[in-house]
């Protein structure tokens, strides 16, 4: 029903006239208005729904369609006016409210302004200026706001005025339609009443249809019951037939089983016999192997014995030459060179002969091939063709040219070779080595025209010059050392005799027998290798789509795929390919399994032909070949379909269908799309009338060239004047077998293809064969024959060519047909070619061709079309078009309804559109075959189709599983294909309208490979994964998904959702993660895309371990080799209470709860893993956690490094063996030359005597190059065995600290490709503390697992110095010594690296001297490391070179050794004694090195130290009285020179050595306080020893030593008083010397006190001075009275010596112990001068 919204629909144009549809019934015509879904099921109604505005056409109807539209428009306009009035009134009301609000606000602002103004006045009177200013500011703001509100008030007032104006206008407009609205309401009520009547009629009609549907349902049920009964009857019949078949089959089955048992017994007996034979064969093989081993040992012993004999003979000869006084090296070397020279000379002569023979064979072969090509392609040599025609006219027969080739050798032998060549030019004599004997010089002919071997009109000199540059370049150049086939496989030619076919066959057989002996079986590990030993990449050498004149190259890689070492040798290529294909192959020699070698194949095509051949090789295990194919550019033409089915077409309609012509080749061609059905048969076509008849050569020529050739052919004589038939040969066909056209006696005959081998055997002498062509067949094939006139006794064919529009008349025998004899039926069948009929198809392109079908008469039409091409090698393509033209008025748009692929128990719908071209309505009845009525339904079953309109029926297809049995012949059980024929019955029409429903029915099942999954015990911290397979049994893709999964189950990939392709099996991972400790029983549901469920039962037990890991998965970053990465996690013991009601407790399923207390764990790291876990075993208390660290250090295993070292050493040994072999070859060549020279000199005279025979006769042949005149064979370099076998080293002999091991490790680092490893480390958990190692009482179910992902990459930086070692050992270094070593690193990555280093110990001995810099790829950088130990111990540090991707650890280690030296100076004091001022004294001492290292020393004087002034700033010693002297420096010289000097001051002392140091004491004035300190420092460090140097100086030779100090020990810097000069001689002033005596008083008496002084004489170097000195004491009696005694009163002192004088004091009796006894005595000394000393004696008594 239509609601009120229909009245507000958009305006409908007045000229809109909807069509009317009627339903016819038996009573009265009724209007039908309903949903198309409802009325489409009617049996007797139109399939076109009625218009909703139609109602019964009665006399009361007054409202027309135009009136309805006007009513709707009017109602819409009135509603719009009402809405507009409401909107305008709302706007006016709203604007008024806004105006009122604005006025209220203005009044409030004015009131507030007045109040502020009054406040200002009050504050001014109160003189409150701060408030005044504030109020004034507020007053200004209020004024501004008031002005704004007033302006807004004016705007709102204007807006209100405008809104009131608009409201007035709308109200006036609405008032105009007041009367019209009343009339409109009346009309709408009338219309509503009419619609109610229509609805009542429709309800009545629908009730009738319901009754009809119930009646039809009853009929269907009755039919269904009948079908079921029929099916039961057939089933009973099938059971009876099956029972009878089973009885018959059981009889034959018994016979078959008996026969099978007999055959099995015979087979078992035969297998037993074969097994016994195999056992006997194995035993005999074992015996043969043992015998062969003994033979090999004997042969090896013999070879060693012969080698020793040869060496002994050479040594004996050398000794004999030495004894005779000759130089054995020179003689042996000369002999060796002579032998080598003779061998080279023989090889050179033999090579010359072989090359000349090869030249002759190539020339002959080339002549044959070029002659054959000239016959096949005469258009390529127009000059030769004219010469041949000229020769025919002259009638002069050709004679065979005889080529004689005489080869003259340096000796007395000569050989000659002659051959007959037809139509060959004379071969001239190059360099007096080739002589030509020709009987016809003027009849020179060459297929190439003028070539290097045939130039017309040139003299002998020109011919000689031409032959000097032959086509085969390099054959006469002796310097070219190209690879040649070994002599045992070269083709030998005996120039004195041309080999016959039998001889060649015998030679081939012998060569094959020899090769079969070369081939050996290859057995490895008891398995024999079979098959091709080398794999070729590519496997077929294919030069595709080549152009003539261009050069193509292909590189072929040959890989040894046999089990062990193999050899490879190039044999040859196919004979017909040698002129175009060159193979460059350098034999690689011995090749191990898996190694490859390269071969370069060069192809330079000269002709546009397809070539096929092969490249033959010989391996140690047998020969093999590689196919070689050279294919020209061709057209690969095809169509997408060769049958065009227009199906059923009604007369008067036009239908177009297209086919796609595709060219997959590299050659383009012209095409012509013609209709052959109804075409007039013709025998010949014009020259250019048919594109398909043109050849490839014709298409390349221009029109002018073709015309010129036609004129030349017409001018040619029609009869061969004296030309024999032998002069003209039938050309050989091309490889494609395309027929060729040849010229015979001025006619044109098409020849059949001839086999190439037959043409080669007959040398092109095949007689032409004439064949008669069928004209009709020729016209259908589209072949074009060139216009010419042929005359023959057997047949006569005459063709005339005109330029008319139609083809010319063709006479065939006595039958002649005119152009009107055949009727053109192309206009009758309605088939014709589309717009594209002639065109050009480019390479690798497609062209769309159309076929148009416009039938005019009914009937079945079958028309043939043909696509013709200008390419002669492309066959015509036939296309057939079929159609059925009918004049039935009712027809179906789709004759084949394809439902594609359908599933069982799914509903599929489609519509069947039926067309009626008749002018009356027709009744239709849809019928479905009986077998498919339960699955396929057409609704409605009966209907009426209006005149010239359409009818749409709905088809429902619901295939059930019973379709397999009920489908019958319409359903294929194996493929599931359904072809259901449907029929439409038309009233008053005999022929029904058929159409077919196609469908492929498939199942929708998904199948799991298991129905039950047991996950076992699973920890709540881990996941258990089980893989299941899900298979799609349907041929349609199906989406699936696991739904309603528990939270502890996950399905991957894609969370259990995905799509399965047809018949695809997908592996799914079911992941179970227990949430708590309990037993799990659950079900997994997999739902398909069509809402089908597939279930799997699952079972598991949850385990809650006592401990837990903070992280169960550790992902290490990409770590380079030798780098280290760290990660940490915690082992947590959260089990603090056994109350299971408050929190989850550790247990296994529903088992006992784990006890609360200390819990131990143990990580078991698998062996040979780069992981370290610390700690591995520990105990965790309740509520605590333990930190565990994991270190990942990827390293190379020792086994991998050892294997790489073995490979590298083996390669080096092989290279060394090859070098030795090459040297041996060179030595063998030189020895052979020397031997040849010696033999030539010794046999020279005999050779001259033997040369008197006939020159050039057979008896004068030269000796074999392989033997010497003495009969001894000389070993040529090529016959020597290969390099000596290399024995790889034993891996156990590789020392891990050797250079080979380090180099192998560096090689593996540089070539490392990266690795990713994943390790699962179990953690066993047990309650309590651990006991003995390995005895942890753990439960397997409580095991935790730590998964570690370890990616390993290649390091970016490696060490390349010191064979790649990363450890730098400085060894033992003395303390203070500085050693610098360099370490070179290289960037082996492909990007720039910014390097940084770790911080070394700032107070350590290692120092990085140079800075790092960015490294470019493959760049290197050298690090300088300094080692300066300061202590005597072992130092170890790691320097890390860091880059963004890796870290390179460099280990630095060294040992500091403390140097030990000893001095010969006692107590560190060296007294230089007394020295005269101005003279010097020299003393020596030794420094001995008692350590194991060399010691560098340096002696530093304190007087030269920079800190001397600071050290001397303290108080003098006589004031401070400090026993420790801060400074050892004493009095200095006045002249500024050092008082003490040591030489040498620095040096190096070897271990166990010593160094003598010379100390010089040179004072310049007299003093007793000369001193200095000599400090000995080792390696520049602090001093290890201090030597105190002291000395005294006097002005004169005599001195007194001893006595008490009476003056300070520091020399005063003040100037002393000058001695007064007295007149006359005066005694010298006495120098005081104080001696203090202390006598110990005892009860029994006083002990005597003794003091002594030394009187010395200084040795002087002055000659004038006195050497000895004298002394004497004066006034001795004066001191004797006081108890003093002197032992020596006077004496003499030798120079350089001292004399001691002892003083003794004994107190006198009655001496007062408190009194001091004082006395003095004068000491006179006489040396160089006389001196006086006043010795003051003071004595006292002291107690003990």
Structure description:
The protein is built from 20 helices and 80 strands. A hairpin with a 2-residue loop joins β19 (811-812) and β20 (815-816). α2 (65-125) runs antiparallel to α3 (129-175), α5 (328-376) packs across α15 (1198-1242) and α15 packs across α17 (1299-1310). The longest helix has 146 residues, at 178-323.
Summarize the structure.
By secondary structure, this protein is α+β, with helices and mostly antiparallel strands. Helix content is 26%, strand content 30%.
Total number of β-strand segments? 80
- Which percent range describes the beta-strand content? 25-35%
Largest sheet geometry: 6 strands, mixed
Low-confidence runs: 1-60, 394-497, 682-824, 1246-1279, 1621-1625
Q: How much helical structure, as a percent, in the residues?
A: 25-40%
Shape: extended
In whole angstroms, how far apart are the ends?
A: 154 Å
- Class inferred from helices and paired strands: alpha+beta
Mean pLDDT over all positions: 76
Helix count equals: 20
Return Rg in Å: 64 Å
């Amino acid at each position: 029903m239509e609601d009120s919204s229909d009245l507000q629909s958009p305006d409908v144009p007045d000229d809109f006239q909807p069509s009317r549809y009627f339903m016819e019934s038996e009573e009265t015509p009724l209007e039908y208005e309903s949903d198309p879904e409802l009325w489409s099921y009617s049996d007797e109604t139109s399939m076109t729904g009625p218009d909703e505005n139609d109602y019964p056409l009665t006399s009361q109807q007054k409202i027309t369609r135009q009136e309805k539209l006007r009513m709707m428009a009017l109602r819409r306009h009135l509603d719009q006016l009402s809405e507009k009035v409401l909107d305008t009134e709302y706007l006016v009301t709203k604007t008024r409210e806004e105006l009122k609000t604005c006025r209220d606000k203005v009044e409030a602002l004015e009131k507030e302004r007045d109040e502020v103004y009054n406040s200002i006045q009050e504050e001014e009177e109160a003189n409150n200026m701060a408030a005044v200013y504030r109020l004034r500011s507020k007053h200004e703001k209020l004024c501004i706001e008031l002005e704004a509100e007033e302006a807004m008030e004016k705007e709102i007032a204007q807006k209100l005025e405008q809104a009131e104006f608009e409201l007035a206008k709308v109200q006036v407009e609405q008032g105009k339609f007041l009367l019209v609205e009343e009339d409109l309401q009346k009309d709408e009520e009338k219309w509503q009443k009419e619609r109610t009547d229509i609805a009542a009629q429709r309800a009545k009609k629908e009730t009738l249809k319901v009754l009809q549907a119930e009646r039809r349902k009853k009929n269907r049920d009755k039919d269904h019951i009948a079908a079921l009964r029929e099916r039961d009857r057939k089933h009973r019949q099938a059971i009876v037939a099956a029972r009878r078949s089973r009885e018959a089959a059981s009889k034959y089955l018994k016979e078959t089983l008996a026969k099978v048992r007999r055959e099995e017994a015979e087979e078992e007996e035969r297998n037993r016999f074969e097994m016994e034979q195999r056992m006997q064969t194995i035993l005999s093989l074992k015996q043969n192997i043992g015998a062969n081993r003994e033979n090999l040992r004997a042969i090896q012993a013999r070879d060693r014995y012969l080698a020793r004999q040869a060496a002994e003979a050479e040594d004996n000869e050398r000794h004999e030459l030495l004894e005779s006084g000759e130089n054995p090296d020179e003689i042996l070397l000369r002999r060796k060179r002579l032998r080598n020279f003779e061998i080279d000379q023989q090889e050179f002569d033999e090579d010359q002969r072989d090359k000349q023979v090869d030249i002759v064979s190539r020339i002959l072969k080339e002549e044959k091939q070029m002659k054959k090509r000239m016959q096949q392609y005469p258009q390529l040599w127009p000059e030769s063709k004219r010469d041949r025609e000229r020769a025919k006219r002259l009638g002069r027969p050709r004679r065979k040219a005889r080529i004689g080739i005489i080869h003259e050798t340096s000796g007395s032998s000569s050989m000659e070779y002659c051959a007959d060549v037809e139509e060959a030019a004379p071969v001239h004599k190059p360099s007096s080595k080739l002589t030509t004997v020709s009987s016809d010089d003027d009849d020179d002919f060459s297929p190439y025209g003028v070539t290097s071997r045939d130039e017309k009109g040139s003299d002998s000199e020109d011919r000689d010059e031409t032959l000097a540059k032959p086509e085969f370049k390099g054959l006469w150049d002796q310097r070219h050392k190209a690879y040649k086939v070994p002599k045992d496989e070269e083709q030998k030619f005996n120039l004195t005799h041309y080999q016959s076919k039998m001889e060649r066959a015998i030679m081939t057989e012998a060569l094959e027998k020899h090769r079969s002996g070369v081939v050996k079986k290859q057995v490895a590990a008891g398995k024999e290798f079979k098959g091709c030993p080398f794999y070729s990449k590519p496997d077929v050498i294919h030069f595709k789509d080549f152009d003539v004149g261009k050069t193509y190259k292909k590189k072929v890689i040959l890989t040894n795929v046999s089990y062990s070492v193999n050899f490879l040798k190039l044999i040859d290529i196919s004979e017909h390919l040698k002129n175009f294909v060159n193979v460059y192959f350098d034999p690689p020699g011995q090749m191990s399994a898996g190694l490859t070698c390269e071969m370069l194949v060069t192809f330079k095509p000269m002709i546009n032909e397809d070539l096929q051949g092969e490249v033959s090789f010989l391996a140690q295990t047998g020969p093999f070949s590689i196919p070689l194919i050279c294919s020209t550019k061709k057209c690969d033409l095809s169509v997408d379909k060769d049958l065009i089915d227009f199906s059923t077409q009604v007369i008067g309609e036009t239908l177009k269908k297209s086919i796609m012509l595709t060219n997959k080749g590299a050659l383009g061609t012209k095409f012509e799309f013609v209709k052959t059905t109804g075409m007039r048969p013709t025998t010949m076509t014009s020259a250019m009338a048919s594109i398909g008849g043109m050849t490839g050569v014709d298409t390349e020529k221009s029109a002018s060239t073709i015309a010129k050739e036609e004129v030349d052919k017409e001018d040619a004589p029609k009869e061969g004047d004296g030309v024999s038939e032998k002069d003209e040969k039938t050309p050989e066909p091309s490889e494609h077998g395309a027929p060729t056209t040849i010229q015979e006696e001025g006619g044109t005959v098409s020849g059949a293809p001839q086999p190439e081998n037959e043409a080669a055997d007959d040398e092109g002498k095949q007689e032409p064969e004439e064949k008669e062509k069928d004209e009709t067949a020729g016209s259908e094939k589209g072949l074009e024959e060139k216009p010419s006139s042929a005359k023959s006794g057997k047949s006569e064919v005459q063709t005339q060519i005109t330029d008319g529009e139609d083809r010319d008349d063709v006479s065939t025998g006595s039958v002649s047909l005119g152009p009107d004899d055949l009727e053109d039926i192309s206009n009758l069948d309605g088939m014709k070619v589309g717009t594209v009929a002639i065109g050009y198809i480019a390479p690798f392109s497609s062209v769309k061709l159309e076929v148009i079908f416009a039938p005019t008469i009914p009937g079945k039409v079958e028309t043939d079309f043909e696509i013709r091409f200008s390419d002669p090698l492309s066959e015509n393509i036939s296309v057939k078009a079929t159609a059925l033209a009918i004049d039935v008025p009712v027809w179906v748009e789709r004759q084949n309804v394809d439902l594609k692929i359908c599933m069982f128990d799914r509903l599929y719908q489609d519509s069947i559109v039926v067309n009626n071209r008749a002018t009356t309505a027709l009744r239709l009845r849809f019928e479905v075959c009986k077998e498919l009525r339960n699955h396929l339904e057409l609704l409605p079953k009966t209907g009426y189709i209006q005149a010239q309109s359409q009818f749409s029926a709905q088809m429902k297809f619901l295939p059930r599983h019973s379709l397999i049995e009920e489908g019958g012949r319409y359903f294929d059980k194996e493929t599931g294909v359904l072809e259901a024929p449907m029929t439409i019955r038309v009233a008053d029409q005999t022929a029904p309208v058929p159409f077919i429903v196609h469908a492929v029915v498939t199942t929708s099942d998904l199948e799991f490979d298991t129905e039950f999954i047991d996950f076992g015990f699973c920890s709540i911290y881990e996941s258990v994964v089980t893989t299941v397979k899900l298979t799609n049994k349907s041929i349609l893709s199906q989406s699936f998904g696991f739904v309603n999964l528990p939270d502890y189950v996950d399905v991957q990939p894609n969370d259990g959702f995905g799509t399965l392709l047809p018949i695809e099996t997908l592996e799914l991972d079911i992941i179970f993660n227990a949430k708590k400790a309990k037993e799990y029983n659950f079900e997994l549901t997999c739902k398909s895309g069509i809402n089908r469920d597939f279930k799997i039962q699952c079972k598991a037990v949850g385990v809650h371990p006592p401990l837990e890991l903070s992280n169960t998965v550790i992902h290490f970053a990409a770590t380079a080799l030798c780098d280290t990465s760290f990660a940490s996690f915690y082992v947590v013991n959260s089990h603090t209470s056994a109350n299971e009601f408050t929190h989850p407790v550790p247990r296994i399923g529903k088992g006992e709860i784990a006890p609360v207390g200390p819990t131990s764990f143990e990580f078991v790291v698998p062996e040979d893993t780069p992981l370290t876990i610390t700690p591995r075993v520990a105990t965790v208390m309740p509520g605590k956690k333990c930190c565990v660290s994991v270190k990942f250090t990827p390293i190379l295993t020792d086994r991998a490094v050892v294997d790489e070292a073995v490979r590298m050493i083996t390669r080096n040994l092989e290279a060394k063996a090859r070098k030795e072999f090459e040297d041996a070859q060179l030595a063998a060549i030189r020895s052979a030359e020397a031997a040849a020279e010696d033999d030539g000199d010794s046999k020279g005279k005999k050779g001259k005597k033997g040369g008197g025979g006939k020159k050039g006769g057979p008896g004068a042949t030269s000796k074999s190059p392989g033997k010497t005149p003495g009969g001894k064979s000389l070993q040529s370099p090529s016959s020597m065995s290969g390099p000596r076998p290399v024995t790889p080293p034993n891996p156990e002999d590789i020392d891990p600290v050797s250079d080979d091991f380090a180099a192998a490790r560096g090689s593996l680092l540089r070539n490392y490709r990266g690795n990713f490893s994943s390790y699962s480390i179990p953690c066993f958990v047990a309650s309590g503390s651990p006991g003995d190692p390995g005895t942890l009482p753990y439960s397997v179910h409580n095991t935790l697992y730590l998964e570690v992902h370890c990616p390993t990459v290649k390091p970016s930086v490696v060490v390349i110095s010191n064979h790649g070692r990363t450890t730098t050992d400085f060894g033992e270094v003395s303390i203070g010594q500085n050693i610098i070593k360099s370490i070179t690193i290289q960037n082996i990555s492909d990007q720039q690296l910014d390097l940084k280093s770790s911080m070394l110990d700032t107070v350590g001995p290692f120092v990085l001297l140079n800075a790092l810099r960015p490294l470019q790829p493959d760049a290197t950088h050298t690090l300088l490391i300094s080692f300066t130990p300061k202590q005597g111990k072992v130092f170890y540090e790691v320097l890390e070179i860091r880059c963004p991707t890796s870290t390179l650890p460099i280990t630095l280690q060294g040992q500091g050794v403390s140097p030990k030296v000893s001095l010969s100076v006692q107590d560190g004091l060296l007294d230089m004694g007394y020295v005269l001022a101005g003279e010097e004294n020299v003393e020596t001492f030794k420094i001995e090195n008692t350590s194991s290292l060399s010691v560098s020393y340096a002696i530093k004087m304190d007087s030269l130290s920079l800190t001397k002034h600071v050290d001397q700033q303290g108080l003098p010693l006589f004031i401070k009285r400090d026993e420790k002297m801060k400074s050892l420096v004493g009095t200095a010289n006045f002249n500024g020179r050092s008082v003490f000097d040591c030489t040498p001051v620095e040096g190096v002392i070897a271990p166990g050595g010593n160094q003598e140091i010379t100390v010089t004491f040179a004072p310049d004035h007299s003093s007793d306080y000369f001193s200095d300190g000599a400090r000995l420092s080792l390696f520049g460090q602090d001093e290890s020893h201090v030597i105190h140097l002291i000395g005294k100086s006097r002005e004169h030779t005599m001195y007194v030593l001893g006595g008490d100090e009476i003056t300070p020990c520091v020399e005063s810097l003040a100037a002393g008083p000058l001695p007064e000069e007295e007149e006359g001689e005066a005694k010298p002033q006495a120098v005081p010397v104080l001696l203090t005596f202390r006598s110990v008083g005892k009860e029994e008496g006083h002990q005597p006190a003794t003091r002594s002084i030394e009187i010395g004489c200084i040795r002087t170097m002055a000659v004038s001075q006195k050497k000895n000195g004298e002394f004497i004491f004066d006034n001795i009696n004066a001191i004797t009275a006081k108890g003093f005694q002197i032992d020596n009163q006077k004496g003499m002192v030798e120079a350089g010596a001292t004399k001691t004088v002892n003083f003794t004091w004994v107190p006198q009796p009655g001496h007062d112990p408190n009194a001091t006894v004082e006395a003095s005595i004068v000491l006179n000394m006489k040396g160089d001068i006389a001196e006086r000393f006043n010795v003051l004696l003071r004595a006292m008594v002291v107690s003990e």
